[in-house]
Amino acid sequence: MPANTEQLIEVVVQIADDHLILGHRLSEWCGHAPMLEEDLSMPNMALDLVGQSRALYSYAAQLESKGHSEDDFAYLRKDREYTNCLLVERPNTDFAHTMLKQFYFAAFMHPFWQGVKNGTDNTLSGIAGKAEKEIGYHIRHAGEWIVRLGDGTDESAERMNDAIEALHPYTGELLEVDEARQSCIVSGAIPEIAPIQTQWNATINNVFTQAKLTVPEIDYPQQGGRAGNHTEDFGFLLTELQYMQRTYPGAQW
Amino acid sequence: MVVNNIEAIDLEAARAVAINVCDPELPFLTLGDLGILRSVELHNNTVIAKVSPTYSGCPALDVIEKSVRDALTQAGFNARVERIMTPPWTTDWITAEGRRKLEANGIAPPGKTQTDKNILFAKTAVSCPQCKSENTIKISEFGSTPCKAQYQCNDCSEPFDYFKCH
Fold first, then answer.
1. Counting CB atoms within 10 angstroms of each CB, which of A71, A133, A137, B142 has the fewest?
2. Which of B56, B88, B141 lies closest to A48 in CB terms?
3. Which chain A residues have any C-beta within 8 angstroms of a chain B C-beta?
4. Tens digit of pLDDT for each residue in A110-136?
5. Between chain A and chain B, how many beta carbons pairs sit less than 8 Å apart?
6. Could you tell me where the DSSP H helices lie in chain A?
7. Which pairing describes strands B107-108 and B159-163: parallel, antiparallel, or unpaired?
8. Are A52 and B117 an interchain contact pair (Cβ–Cβ within 8 Å)?
């Protein structure tokens, strides 16, 4: 096992967890979206995210070589073993919250995947090549909604501002570099964080300006997901996500 | 030499089988038309077909891989299918014949260049597959499958799918 394989597995699982949980949150909108087009778009984007998480979990299982499959990672861990950032597990609340959550995440993942694509890990680079194109649609889709709502009616602008107040404190965790990430940055599998942060800020500022919204100062940044310390809502999410495998162990379809 | 000849003939036959497998969601397109069959190789009496996914979460992916394996097995080969991620599939790999079939089936074929993802509300010029008018409007960036967006023609009023540039 190469020196930093353990750290690589840790980071691959972190990214996979981000995608699975955000994908699951989006899938909750299926059949409940405010209009038919959105009822198609959100499950479509959920499919992208869950598809990306499958590729990542499979890679983690392969690196680990303990005979686990993608399903073991997705369905059979306990809440404290998931290392997704807190942002992705926040409840959907209303449409403004959902679009803002997507936007914050996509604005980070797009430059991140670009870096991984040009990085030293061939498998991750292949996954990144696909994901980069897919996440591009997510940035635009969510970005357009933020402009429509932020620069819309008094009601829509108020809801957009509520969403910013609720979710912006969770964005710092996206850009956090723990020991495992640092090791993968050194090996060249994932990119340096500073240029990503610059691009993330630029993307957010660009859309917020068009939407007549303001990027807030953060008094109390929220984090803990990477260490397995989740918010209360996460348990409810996991109960639904894991229901089938817990009730019918080993079920396949 | 004789063995080599037989191998070459087998490989050609296996390739013909794999390339003519149809996409489950766009059944008028073959894997050859879509450009997702990357190679067909023969190793120790086993045919290895290498396939690239179109989208990470495309539900058709597993079905396509199974169809290729089944078709090759039915044709008498020991077969295995491998998933190839690099280089990533792009709609530029759809053949001219594939683009013609898309349009004939009411789906506008993909444009040649991707629009910048940071430009919001950008317009992509898409021709109506029915009346060829360019006076069309995007209804939704997402459609019935991950690879399609929904458009409508302002001239003939026909709603249609657009195969997204990817």
1. A71
2. B56
3. 37, 40-41, 44-52, 54-55, 110, 122-123, 125-127, 129-131, 133-134, 136-137, 139-141, 143-144, 147, 203, 206-207, 210
4. 999 999 999 999 999 999 999 999 999
5. 90
6. 5-27, 36-64, 70-75, 86-89, 95-117, 122-150, 154-167, 179-187, 193-210, 232-241, 243-247
7. parallel
8. no
The reported pLDDT for the residue numbered A113 is 98
State the average pLDDT over residues B73-93: 92
> Cβ separation of B88 and A133 shorter than 8 Å?
yes
Q: What is the reported pLDDT for B32?
A: 96
Q: Is the pLDDT of residue B137 over 60?
A: yes
The Cα angle at residue B53 between residues B59 and B85, in degrees rounded to 5: 140
CATH 3.30.300.130 residue ranges of chain B are 2-89
Average pLDDT over residues B72-78: 95
Cα-based angle A67, A69, A70 (whole degrees, multiple of 5): 155
Q: Which CATH architecture has domain B2-89?
A: 2-Layer Sandwich (3.30)
* CA nearest neighbour of B68 among B34, B37, B111: B37
A161 vs A253 pLDDT, higher one: A161
Quick: pLDDT tens for B59-72.
Answer: 888 899 999 999 99
Q: How confident is the model at residue A252 (pLDDT cuts 50, 70, 90)?
A: confident
